[in-house]
Specification:
The chain is mainly α. The chain is built from five helices and no strands. The chain has helices at 2-39, 48-83, 88-114, 123-146, 164-169. It starts with a helix and ends in an 8-residue tail after the last helix. The chain binds protoporphyrin IX containing FE.
């Protein structure tokens, strides 16, 4: 019975890892291509060509990259419970992933206004945003694959201690109506 349950958990883990990696491949490649698509906006006058670029850019962001991000986060969350990944390197990964999510939102904000009259995306922004995505994605993949040993007791003794959050929040009280 126990063996059956273990076997099922291994199959679930393999399935979720497959989904996670597939979603990350789409999410990451979508983000890397976004600044290049934004940059194509330069020198295009209002007309059918601009509308075509707008439709394509919206599709890549709304139809491809954002759903992949949701699937990557959902499957990653399932993996936390399947793999019981409660180690320091994973906290570092989550910090980097939150930066990636913030930069995902930045791409959405740029897209929301870029196709208004007179707007453009400069070469500097193109290079800066692309480099940020590349550095972050490489850093996350390195952290996950290398799983570096980080001893949090050296700098945050309460980080993994049971009840640490209560101590950290100190006197914070939730008002009971
Ligand atoms: C909220 C978002 C995410 C969550 C909750 C999450 C969670 C996880 C978990 C729990 C694992 C299994 C770790 C283990 O082997 O013990 C995993 C594997 C992995 N994750 Fe994520 N992840 C997220 C986003 C990402 C992103 C953005 C990337 C890359 C850009 C990424 C790359 C990977 C890779 C490459 C693996 C496979 C590691 C291996 O099999 O050794 N993840 N993820």
């Amino acid at each position: 019975m126990v063996e059956l349950a273990t076997g099922r958990a291994i199959h679930m883990t393999t399935l979720f890892k497959f989904i996670h990696l597939a979603a990350i491949a789409i999410w990451s490649s979508g983000l890397i291509i976004m600044p290049f698509l934004f940059w194509q906006r330069r020198n295009i006058e209002p007309g059918p060509e601009l509308e075509r670029l707008h439709r394509l850019t919206r599709f890549v962001f709304v139809g491809m990259t954002s759903p992949a991000a949701f699937i990557a986060i959902g499957s990653g969350t399932a993996l936390i419970f399947l793999q019981t990944t409660f180690l320091e390197w994973f906290s570092l990964k989550m910090a980097l992933v939150s930066l990636m999510v913030m930069l995902h939102v930045v791409a959405g904000l740029v897209l929301a206004h870029l196709f208004e009259p007179g707007k453009s995306f400069r070469r500097f922004s193109y290079v800066a945003l692309t480099s940020s995505y590349l550095v972050l994605i490489t850093a996350i993949i390195w952290v996950v694959l290398a799983k570096p040993h980080i001893d949090s007791s050296q700098f945050a003794t309460e980080l993994f201690a049971p009840g640490g959050l209560r101590q950290f929040l100190g006197e914070t009280r939730i008002p009971i109506p």
